[in-house]
Design brief:
globular; seven-stranded mixed beta sheet
Length: 449
Amino acid sequence: MADEYDYDLFTIGAGSGGVRASRVAAAHGARVAVAEEYRVGGTCVIRGCVPKKMLVYGAHFAEDLEDAKHFGWDIPQATFDWKRLRDNVLGDVDRLNGLYTQTLENHAVEIFHERATITGPHEITLANGVKKTAKVILIATGARPFVPSCPGHEHGITSNEAFHLDAIPDRVLIAGGGYIANEFAGIFNEFGSKVTIINRSDTILRGYDESLRDRLLQISLAKGIDFRFGAEFEGITRNPDGSLSVAMTNHEPLTVDCVMFATGRVPNIEGLGLEEAGVSVNDKGAIVVDEYSRTSIDHIYAVGDVTDRVQLTPVAIREGQAFADTVFGGTPATVDYSCVPSAVFSHPPIASVGMSEAQARMKLGAVRVYTSDFRPMKNVVAHRNERSLYKMVCDDANGRVVGIHMIGPDAPEIMQAAAVAVRAGLTKADFDATIAIHPTMAEELVLLK
């Protein structure tokens, strides 16, 4: 490869996409460097899905301990120590940060623990002023939480800070209707907070199947989570006792101890030198790329959340892999976004793959929908009146399964295998021909009527 440059590849951002791209490019023989101004591992590992899922596990014990009584277990009054859970979770984040760093070092990838800016066609300048050159530049800087610009917004936190709280707030207001808002609502509620979600629209989890959204709303309300729809922030003021008063449209003001913004995420593109480099961004501030993750400049690429495609960790990893195989492995590869499974780790969790019923009707016209609305066996014994809902959407013309949507315990674990079947184009008859594993919740998928 060209020796007139310091590196064959310089990656800006060491999150899921950047780490995979750098590691694979190095395995293909490229000389690689990565710059990361915060910690190696990115949003998912450091301040996102991984620590969030650990909090979800911790929160779920609240219900498990309650349910245990009905299974014959007498447990003395249980108490919860937030700081112990928080510090154990952060300790594991440190471990993962070390593993990701080690992975790069094992592949002889040079890591610069500082900010980097594109300052010339093939030139990168580090925060300390040192200039480096690279044949190919990859931008993998991800996204960050969006904070609305209402008066007093500085009194709020985002998911980033939620992992570092000194205490669980007695009253928390969460702004947003997406998966982050609903997940943290479930977590805080189980830990004993009084949770209110406010949302500009009247829809939670836009993009998920309507039946699942309705069921989660119903269950969340039964758990004591309040929802205020059609509410926009007018202002947040701090009271002398440290509490926050929140004024909003269409609803009475509310006094809480913590306001958390979960109002979407915006690409991290500021100060990268994109404009000077001639890299095009769209009206959402995301970098525009082609199917091979190439930007408007031939030797500059971008993967992950900074590109506004599908904002999921495994997708960023696939994009990083495809980029490295294409540019350094000699095997052009693209990512298929048509059948990406996803989950919401709410209480109970949601999992989904393929088209929702509404999307399928729009695209295919005639569809056939099969559902199972049941009470999991564990909930029956626990006297927990909480029902699961599984839904299968099929193309009426050929019986092909085009979408599966589930809400209930362990739905994401079950969905991973079911997603293989949908991706492979299997039919309802293929599911029906498969013998059930009894008694399980997953068997409902092969018994749908």
